User: Fold this.
Amino acid sequence: MKTRRLGRDGPEISAMGYGAMSFSDFYGATSEAESHAILDHCRSVGLTHLDTANIYGMGRSEEVIGSYLARHPEAKREFVIATKASIARDDAGNRVFRNDRKHLEAELDKSLQRMGVDHVALFYVHRRDPDVPIEEVTEGLAEIVKTGKAGGFGFSEIAPSSLRRAAKVAHVAAVQSEYSLSTRSPELGLVQTCAELGTALVAFSPVGRSLLTDRPLSLEAVQKLDFLRGNPRFMSPNYEANVRAAEAFCALAAEMGVSAAGLANGWLLAQGEHVIPIPGTRSAAHLNDCLQGAALALSSEDLARIEAVLPVGWAHGDRYSESQWIGPERYC
Assistant:
């Protein structure tokens, strides 16, 4: 597989990574054996970057990675792992965001223990605490990197202006954001700022939570998933309108001899050498569909055809509900 760099000074990784939220039950029930099979498949196809978080399944995703690495210790040299922290609960059980170094480092220590490793390549602040200046957070992250527990640090779902502020303190290796043909907001500054600063843009949900695939989740399946059934894009009548709108994209992908998921990921890779999609799936077959994108070399004509069938703003409904928007920084 082609490779890209995880930030200006970071390690070389596969051009596409794997989003290990799927190792929890977020998108449907799974098992350790099924997740281990995905990791086996990642190794067989040369996919080296794994993205997880302490909150995925309340540690389950990291534990699955840890049990795999315990059985296959040689894989510790192959996988380049990123994890995240900051989403927590207060004494009353309310969700809060903790950005202080003490909390972040303590959570990183727990993540390392769950995975059975002594460091990760990248450690993200999962959500910003708006009451703590990002400069102060960045100073704490830079100190954590000095301990050797993380090779670099990043932020998830922050605005371009926040990235610029943080970068004045220390180099930010990566910013993670939802980015796909159905979510184009990063193009209003984040894609450009990351490129300017040598920061990788790690794109999660690259196939629009199934909308940009040949087999989107059925409305019946959506109703069984807590996150999606309350998501505006998956609620009627938006859901039906989105599936209809994506049909022309699926037809174009078939005409080009590639899966819709492959074309969606290939489009992302064409948006800049610093863009790294991280599809997540419980199926090796679907992962293969996504990975078709890494072999594509899309021409300007190809990109224009894609834009013609899915123009900017085609998606019906916001990408998050009001409650889901708590945490990510809006900047447009």
